[in-house]
Amino acid sequence: MIKQSDVVVIVPHLGADKQQEYAFDECYASLKESVPDMRILVAKNGPACPHIRSVRVLIQGQCKAVNAAVAITNEPWIMVTNDDMIYPPGWFEKLTSNLPKDVWCVSPQLVEPRPGAPSFIVYFCGGAGGDFDKQKFFDFVKNHQGEGLRTGFNLPFLVKREVFDIVGIYDIRYDPWSSSSDTDIQCKFELAGVKTYQNTNCLIYHFSQTSGTFHPDNHWNWSENYEYFRQKWGFERPGDPDVWFSKNLIKYDQLKYNPWWKDFYAKKISESTA
Predict the structure, then answer these.
(1) Any domain includes 213
(2) Which of 60, 87, 237, 253 could form a disulfide with 30 if both were Cys (CB 3.0 to 4.6 A apart)?
(3) Which residue range(s) make up the domain with 135?
(4) Would residue 252 count as lying in a domain?
(5) Residue 105, class by beta-carbon neighbours within 10 Å (0-12 exposed, 13-18 middle, 19+ buried)?
């Protein structure tokens, strides 16, 4: 069983408008209430968050922010979350209970107010505009019966620090808006032999699309990042539904990325079961 004190939660936060600040306040409060023994570190682009433990990264970028926070922590497990996600009571126990020993990366199942990724649950509890009904979401969680572990990946994700130590953290070439960076790190895990799982017993609410990544003004960055991913890996970024269920991510017949740690964990598992 993973203890709360073994985990640091890293919350990258831009805070460029009122909606982003509202979402962050709700996210941070839900973490403080639900996991009081867990360290929470805000990775802030721009002005510091008053009265909150944070690291400042003055050059905008979610990848840079997360990397800076990881570098100054030493907990054996790292949880990376968006700043617009709401954590209900008991989420950590549901996420981590009875995990097999070879699970080094696990995500909860997300609940969003509108249709999104195929692995998410759609249930409207409001959003970052100030209409969020926290109790409605908490009641929904109480009545939820998940199906346990399945392959999958999304933010937030809990990963063993040693995995980051082996494969590296985020690729800052995806900044400032970081689109495709999560798929990049998901593919790095897969390439190293780390299977990524989703625990459907654990639900987290996601306001969704508060960061500005999908704003029309930032479409140029999305296009550049998509092309950078293709050039780096040798194939196009996996699409729906494969990317959400961690299936058919890497096209090995087209793969250009060949780091020293390729198959590192696959070999480790093989040796331990031999």
Answers:
(1) yes
(2) 87
(3) 84-273
(4) yes
(5) buried
Domain-located, residue 136: yes
User: Rounded CA gap, 214 and 195, in Å?
Assistant: 28
192: how many CB neighbours lie within 10 A of its CB?
Answer: 20
Within 10 A of 210 (CB to CB), how many other CB atoms are there? 22
Counted domains in the chain? 1
Residue 239 has a pLDDT of 93
pTM above 0.85, yes or no: yes
- Residue 15 forms part of a structural domain: no
CA–CA separation, 263 and 189 (whole Å): 9
Give tens-digit pLDDT for 92-137: 999 999 899 889 999 999 999 999 999 999 999 999 888 999 999 9
Give the three-class secondary structure for 182: helix
Q: How far apart are CA 158 and CA 2, in angstroms?
A: 11
Q: How far apart are CA 94 and CA 6, in angstroms?
A: 16
Residue 159's alpha-carbon distances to 35, 111, 151, 185, in angstroms, are 17, 21, 14, 11
Structure tokens at 92: 């950590």
